Amino acid sequence: MATIPAQHADFPSSIPQSRTHAAETTASIPWYIWCATVAVTSATIGGYWDISWHSSIGRDTFWTPAHMAIQLCGVLAGIAFGYLILHTTFSKNSPLAPASVHIFGFRAPIGAFIASWGGIAMLTSAPFDNWWHDAYGIDVKIVSPPHILLIMGVYSVVIGTLVLLAGHMNRGQAQSHANERRLILYINGIMLVQFMILLMEATNRPYLHSARAYLGVALLPPIVLALSSRLTRYPFAATFVTAFYMLFRIGLILILPLFPAEPKLGPVYQQVTHFVPPDFPLLFIVPAFLLDLLWQRTKSWNDWKVAAVSSAIWVSVFLALEWPFATFLMSRASNNWFFGTGYLYFALPPKSFVARHAFYPSGGPVEFSLAMIFAFMLGTLAFRWGINRGEWLGKIKR
Amino acid sequence: MKRVRLATPFVFLTLTALAHAHVGSTDIFLEGKAGPYQLFVTVRPPLTIPGVAEIEVRSESAGVREIKAVPLAIKGAGSKLAPIPDALKVSANDPKFFVGQLWMMTSGSWQARLTVEGAQGEGTLSIPVPAVARASKRMQLGLGLILSCVGIFLVTGLVAIVGASVREARLDPGQTPAPTDLRRGRKATIIGAVIVLAIVFGGNAWWNSEAQQYDTRIYKPLRMAASLKGSELHLRMTEPGWMQAISLEQAAFRVFTRKMDDLIPDHGHIMHLYMIRQPGLDVIYHLHPDERDTGSFVLPLPSTEGGHYKLYADIVHADGFPETLTSEIDLPALAARPLAGDDAFAQGEPWQKSTPNTVFTLPDGYKMEWLRPSQAIHARQGMSFNFRLLKPDGTTPADMSLYMGMLGHAAFVKTDGTVFAHIHPNGSISMAALMLAEGMPADMKMDSAQGVLPNAVGFPFGFPSPGKYRIFVQMKHAETVETGIFDVDCLLPIQNG
């Protein structure tokens, strides 16, 4: 990538700041951020719908409603951010021109570039995934290279939206930015819900007595929680974000089975008559609430110290809660409309751990303890990174 | 992130040399009855699993209104619950021709169950379909170039975003980056480039790992080693490492695992062994070794012509999954036991000295005739190969009998050795698998036909590729098994036909 000389003509040094402020400080949340919010919401609903589609019906085409919901994210992001970049670059009166960064001769707020990158990655994943199916078979798993490209694309749209929103908030002169903060919390909630798609294969019920589930949980959610807390300064940001995740997942358990669906693929090992929802959410809200209490009292602490203590709380409290709760989820008592452990993927072999409501054998206590120490270290890094990103977003102006 | 496997403008396939149940011949042809309706069914399994098989059905009976197809496991839990069946599409030009797709999601022993509805009521027909991954496909040049370009754009774009975010994102609106900002931006760009490239290389390694993992799922038949001890032929099977669960997790999810101790008899024998002398394909034995131990077969050879032989051994696993194992052996001329039981032998001219024929004169003066259609034969074209046996005076034998429960057996062999298919009057499927798919015991005795048997037999088949083929046809009258030898040239497949 070429760096830009200080005297480069593209740098809008001659654009008066007052114009930007005049245009923005009085404005409410701009339309393109709402558009992006709808986009990431659509991708999130589409992602879970698609997983349920594959668990219940199995066969799909490019044109399933779930795929359309995911692609709508790309379309809306393309419209919103494409317009933003082009308008900011080529319009002589764009209020965002002074609040832009410069990439490949274009200019726009950095969030617009991040989200556009995501849109292009999403588009690229489609032919890549199609070829992947031809080459290696129609995959029935979430974590494959083309799927990861798609997920990276969606995440980039989410992150781009967050950056754009943070920049908008930071440029404003209002004191509270209450709407922006609420929307940031919502976007963070979406981000956590999406991260949990990536962790779905590691946190399936049978793995909840295995190290892999706790390693995954120590890696991704802390980034979102620390980031949202530092960016919004809202005292219960982590609680809100995890509550959103849990309510979203519980909502799917309550709603999806209301709609009929039958397998269109064999082999069929489990009788399925309605859409199969995802597993009951992980019990994040309790350790998240404790983190919020911690963070309210540790504002003067060194960030590394905050991260280490946060990780210790996150890993230990989550482990203490989820382990026995997983035992409950494996019992007959959880086979009901609320916990939904009776909803099984139609092609789940009868001898599989999920179908037998059995835990995947974990390693011995020493091996597990070492893994939890590693989870603590991983969590420390993740919280520190989240703090760092939250602070960075708090200073974004463009 | 991107690993582009460049190829020529054509789609390249890394095909295994051998294919399940037959060698080099994967399409399934079956002629059978769905209730009152006579059907000719062709199933073209997918290259990859999971994948989509193509199914074509020609009704040879009038009045068929609708055909539905559903894929099911032949045995086990997956055979009890069925997905929603698909209605096959009727051809606009031919109301008796139906086409559709079957989604095969796991390797193993499947069946396509057809339900036919028409003027004479409803009928069903099950077609065994062994599902295995046979290839991985390389990327077309055009797609590879496009994805490479976009990939480069994404990589450079990401690095540029990292640089710009450090250089400018925190500046107040309208503020020009100071030299320190530019320096920090350059530094971030370099670090970003290193990290992004590391991600790209990591992605490439992951892609390679996924491809290698897929390669382990590509079908490999059981290996078979042949040796001669005195006049005994010893065959030893070994597992090359296909569909073996390598972890507890895989074992729990894997529905199909190949074993060697689960072989079942297929029309009376646990193994059907064809020994064909190379390179002329001029001598053929159809023999039946006994299983002495798991993976170990022994056969006291009959008197044998000396030479280099290719061995094709058909076996069927307990779930109906058929395999053809191959080996080669040099045999001396043996003076041993006479042919007995279901043993059969034939000798003809080497194919190099022969020309396409429709009549073969047998050693006892009988004649076998191929009722060959007048038009040329093209690859991938399903058709019935019909033969009849005549006495030396040209009349119909009155003493026709069943050969291993059927009116005949045929082996279709390509002269370059790339194709071998052991075919029955029902089609190219394993008879044991067919019985299992129809819900009958796999080893049910089939020689229960009563009355005078016809002197004609048909074999549904289609040559998989163009070239020269030799067809060995076996029919039986009284206690004599007759083997006719026919040569045929197969042309290129008809495009869009």
The shape of chain B is elongated
Q: Unreliable runs of chain B, pLDDT <50, ≥5 residues? A: 1-19
Number of strands of chain A: 2
Round the Cα radius of gyration of chain B to an integer and report it.
28 Å
Strand order of the largest sheet of chain B: 1-2-3-7-6
**Order of helix and strand elements from N to C terminus of chain A:** HHHEEHHHHHHHHH
* Contiguous helical run count of chain A: 12
Describe the biggest sheet of chain B? 5 strands, antiparallel
Protein described:
The complex is a heterodimer of chains A (398) and B (497). With 398 residues, chain A is mostly helical. Chain A is built from twelve helices and two strands; from the N terminus they run αααββααααααααα. Chain A has helices at 17-24, 31-56, 65-90, 110-136, 145-171, 178-198, 211-219, 221-232, 237-255, 285-297, 303-329, 365-395, and strands at 101-103, 106-108. In chain A, strands 1-2 form a two-stranded antiparallel ribbon. Chain A starts with 16 loop residues before the first helix and ends with a helix. The model of chain A is unreliable at 1-26 (pLDDT under 50). Residues 1-19 of chain B have low confidence and may be disordered. Chain B is α+β, with helices and mostly antiparallel strands. Chain B is built from four helices and 27 strands. Chain B is 16% helix and 37% strand. Chains A and B meet through helix 1, strand 1, helix 4 and helix 5 of A and strand 4, helix 1, helix 2 and helix 3 of B.
